[in-house]
Design brief:
This protein has about 400 residues and is α/β, with parallel strands linked by helices. Pyridoxal-5'-phosphate binds next to helix 4.
């Protein structure tokens, strides 16, 4: 019997090594990775330049402490701010921690203005993590049930509905921020249009609210820009990152700009592991390789190739509701629950995921080549058709 807490319904497969977009299990079987550990393995598996940089850093220094200066952390913060126009960065180890930092920052921002019970607008179907504050911000009862009392101070509105936000602005004087995923991941790969983001930016400016974007899943080059909000030309006040930033090494980040910058002072927030030299070299090397190998424009092109491939193969297939997403963040919504497709694909040597019950989710490594994407299409499209026919 396993001594692990029963927090995951795990598939019956164990991987022992990987290379590029391929993984091998204990039996020597090979699998095509269409999920990248849920948008984590940006550079695929065992990327030679990445593993060399990590190996060199492990031989020098893995961890010291945030009571000292950490050069690698300074460099990664410089890099992230250069890529975004944000001003400052707090490093942690995961997406929920990055969002915890954002939520704490928004509350302190409110308190500084004399708002004693600051509130944050959050979205239906949102996912922000599983700590108490972030599961309270999450818009999914399955994530919250059994953990009440929830953290208070969140006001929920429908995703992609500016009027709902304007109504809250009229009635609630305690709001200090809006927290929203630029593209909803767990909620079923739902995108916001450019106009929504521009107008939301304007509302936040008028109301003196912080615009806080959760790019934990959609950030780091996956959509064809460094960050998904950059398609719209706006700048958020706060942005959170994690998943793909370290290509598998745990790292999270909360970035602040404009009126959000300078909120935290020593003693307000912290993390023992956050931003240690190893994690920051993982982040820096990930960003450098994305840049050197032009993986953002590649993600955009390959995303279009996959999108077109699915559109062609699944056009007119009864039961396929919508194919959506941006770059290498793709969702295929069916008209029925399709969790079983994950096992069927696994049996064919393909790793995919299903979220929100009926949305097939693809988040492949950014290094996937076109012939590999073609293999993905060749396995998955017939599988979807067969699944819908039976
Ligand atoms: C995965 C995810 C999180 C939580 O990240 P963890 O590292 O699992 O804590 C938060 N927000 C979004 C949008 C995510 O996709």
């Amino acid at each position: 019997m396993s001594h692990l807490m029963n927090t995951y319904a795990r598939l019956p497969v164990t991987f022992v090594r990987g290379e590029g977009v391929w993984l091998w299990d204990t039996e020597g079987r090979r699998y095509l990775d269409g999920l990248a550990g849920i948008a984590v393995n940006t550079l695929g598996h065992a990327h030679p330049r990445f593993t060399a940089a990590l190996g060199a850093q492990i031989g020098k220094l893995i961890h010291c402490s945030n009571v000292y200066q950490i050069n690698e952390q300074e460099l990664l913060a410089d890099k992230l701010c250069n890529l975004t126009g944000m001003r400052e960065v707090f490093f942690c180890n995961s997406g929920c921690e990055a969002n915890e930092a954002a939520i704490k920052l928004a509350r302190m921002y409110g308190h500084r203005q004399g708002i004693e019970a600051p509130a944050i607008i959050v979205m239906e179907k949102a996912f922000h993590g599983r700590t108490l504050a972030t599961l309270s911000a999450t818009g999914n009862r399955k994530v919250q049930a059994g953990f009440e009392p929830l953290v208070s101070g969140f006001v929920r509105v429908p995703y992609d509905d500016l009027d709902a936000i304007r109504q809250v602005a009229q009635h609630n004087r305690n709001v200090v921020a809006v927290l929203v995923e630029t593209i909803q991941g767990e909620g079923g790969i739902r995108t916001l249009d450019i106009e929504y983001l521009k107008q939301l930016r304007q509302i936040c400016d008028e109301q003196n609210w912080l615009l806080m974007l959760d790019e934990v899943q959609c950030g780091i080059g996956r959509t064809g820009e460094w960050f998904a909000y950059q398609h719209s030309g706006i700048l958020p006040d706060v942005m959170t990152l994690a998943k793909g930033l370290g290509s598998g090494v745990p790292i999270g980040a909360c970035l602040a700009a404009g009126k959000a910058a300078g909120t935290f002072q020593p003693g307000n927030h912290g993390s023992t592991f956050g931003g240690n030299p190893l994690a920051c070299v993982a982040g820096l090397t990930t960003l450098n390789i994305i840049e050197q190998d032009k993986l953002m424009s590649h993600a955009e092109k390959l995303g279009r190739f996959l999108h077109d491939g699915f559109n062609t193969a699944l056009q007119g297939v009864k039961g396929v509701k919508e194919i959506r997403g941006q770059g290498l963040m793709i969702g295929i919504e069916l008209d029925q629950p399709c969790g079983d497709l994950v096992k069927l694909a696994l049996a064919q040597g393909l790793l995919i995921n299903v979220t929100a019950d009926s949305v097939i989710r693809l988040l492949p490594p950014l290094v996937m080549k076109q012939d590999e994407a073609q293999q993905l299409l060749d396995i998955l499209c017939p599988l979807i058709k067969e699944f819908l026919q039976t």
